[in-house]
Write a structure and sequence with these properties.
about 260 residues, alpha/beta, 11 helices, about 35% helix
């Protein structure tokens, strides 16, 4: 099973490019599924603030039974996990509880495809951080978990063995080929295959975050990923593909192109 979608669905600059100019905000998610044809969504606003059950309940009601959500972990679970003065790990167990509590409407409706935990560049592979990943998995229980690393020092066999041992998915990323960023490396470490396309803006480090993802993949660039996607899908129960190059609606355009390419080949 392969599902394709975008990282978020509500952006001001999607009006007139992806959505009709007069479409109301409360109608966008339904349009995303019914008119654009996407059956999965990566929810990113949850990184900035702990979500409410009410929000997820409303989103679930606007989508059909086979629609699925991946929810990005709150920053208090991935980025703000150390005391700024001492550098020691903080006790964030209550944060995990609140986050999981908010997911109950999606879990109850069978629409939670997984949790995406994206860690910062400064999260390095050491004993303490491996221990934290183990605790993260324990806190999530049987909810599917996918990890996105931003530091390429994680790209070694011990990491993949660890992810497989704990049934944690590896987020395969495509982003600019710059020294500090993660290279593209297709790997399946759990029942979920996960591709995340950030775009290839060469000015990644020199532009505001608002335009960092300003990139539209060409059809030929997308076509190169098709064999790897199909290979990963054979090794997993479900493969999820999300486009995060959301500037000016590029993500929606590329997601639709990728869906078409996968059907053709």
């Amino acid at each position: 099973m392969i599902k394709i979608g975008t990282s978020g669905f509500y952006f001001v600059d999607w009006k007139g490019t992806v959505y009709p100019p007069g479409l109301r905000e409360r109608e966008m998610l339904s349009f995303y599924e019914k008119e654009l044809g996407f059956h999965a969504l990566e929810v990113n606003f949850t990184y900035y603030a702990l979500p409410s059950q009410k929000s997820f309940s409303a989103m679930s009601k606007k989508t059909s039974g086979d629609f699925e959500f991946v929810v990005k972990a709150y920053k208090g679970m991935t980025h703000e996990i150390r005391n700024k003065e001492t550098g020691e790990m903080i006790n964030n167990q209550e944060t995990f509880k609140k986050f999981k509590y908010s997911l109950e409407p999606l879990i109850g409706d069978g629409k939670l495809a997984g949790i995406l935990a994206q860690f910062p560049y400064g999260f390095f592979p050491n004993r303490e951080n491996f221990g934290y990943l183990e605790r993260f998995k324990e806190e999530m229980g049987d909810l599917p978990l996918v990890i996105e690393f931003r530091n390429q020092t994680w790209l070694k066999e011990v990491t993949f063995e660890f992810l497989k041992r704990y049934g944690i998915g590896f987020c395969i990323v495509d982003e600019p080929k710059l020294e500090k960023l993660m290279p593209y490396l297709p790997q399946a470490t759990s029942a979920i295959g996960y591709f995340r396309f950030h775009g290839r803006n060469p000015n990644w480090f020199n532009v505001p975050a608002s335009v960092r993802y300003d990139y539209l993949y060409s059809e030929n660039e997308l076509r190169e990923f098709v064999p790897d996607i199909k290979d990963i899908s054979k090794k997993t129960a479900k493969t999820l593909i999300f486009f995060n190059n959301c500037h000016a609606g590029s993500a929606a355009k590329n997601a639709a192109q990728m869906a078409k390419l996968l059907l053709e080949q």
